[in-house]
Amino acid sequence: MVPRVRVRVGQRVPVVVQSRGRRRTGARLLWVGAETVVTCGLVVLLLVVHQLWWTNQQARAEALQQVRVLEREWDISPSPVPVPVPVSIPVPTSGSAGAGAGAGAGASADVGSPSVPPVAPSPPPGPAPRPAASAAFAVLRIPRLGLTVPVAHGVSKRSVLDKGYVGHYPGTASPGRTGNFALAGHRNTHGEPFRYINRLAKGDEISVRTRERTYVYRVDQVLRQTAPRDVGVVRAVPRSIVSPSYGYDTPGAYLTLTTCTPEFSSAYRLVVWAKLVA
Length: 278
What we know:
Blueprint: H1 20-75, H2 97-102, E1 136-142, E2 147-153, E3 166-168, E4 179-184, E5 205-209, E6 214-226, E7 253-261, E8 268-276
C-alpha cells in the first residue's frame, strides 16, 4: 500500500525544484576543460615532432646541398688565361735583302716598322679574402658513421649549428695545420651530425676536404664525459682540465670533435680526439 500524506488545511507543502541550469553549466565547463587539455596535448606533440623530426629533415637537406655546392665548385678547374706577349714586326726597307738582313737590331728601329703595343702584366693576386663568419669552407666525412657534413666558421647556433653544419671553434687551427682543429656539432635535433660519435673507436678514420686538398685523421682518444667549462679540450695541445689523464703533452696536428652528452641533454660534453696521418 502507498502511504498517504495528510495535509492540513493551510499547511505549506515544501517543493524541491532541481536546477537544470547549474547542471548544464558544470557540464559545459567540464567539456571546455577537456578540449583545452586535448588542444594543449596536440600542440606539445606538434612541437616535439617539429623539434625531433622536421628540424632534422630540413637541416640535413640544407647541409647536403651545401656539400654539393662546395665540391662542385672545387671540382671546376679554371683554364689559365694566356698573357699577350709584345711582338715586334719589322717591315722591309727599300734596300736589298742582304742589307736588310745585315741591319740586325737597327732594322727593327726603323720609323716605318709597326709593332703591337706592350701589354702591362697583370698584378699578382693578393691574399684570398677571409671567409665570412658561418661560411662553409670544408667537408667532414666519417665513414664509420656514414656522415658527410659541411664545416663552417664559428659555433653560433642560429647561423651554423642549427643549419645542420659542424662549427669550427674560433681561434683554433685550420685543417691539416699544427695545432688543434676543433669542431662542435649537435647531438640531437637540427641534423644531429654528431649523434653517434660516441661509437667512434681508436683507429677510425676521419677526413676533412678543403679547396686545396683532403686531410686524413685517425681517432686516438675518446673522453666520454666532461664538464662544459672544460676549455682544455680545444687548446692547441689539447688536455682535459677536468680529467687530466685525457689529452696530450706535445704539439701536433690534432682534430677535436665535441658535442653534448647524454642524449637530449646539455649537462656534459663528449670529446673525440684524432691525429693527422695524411
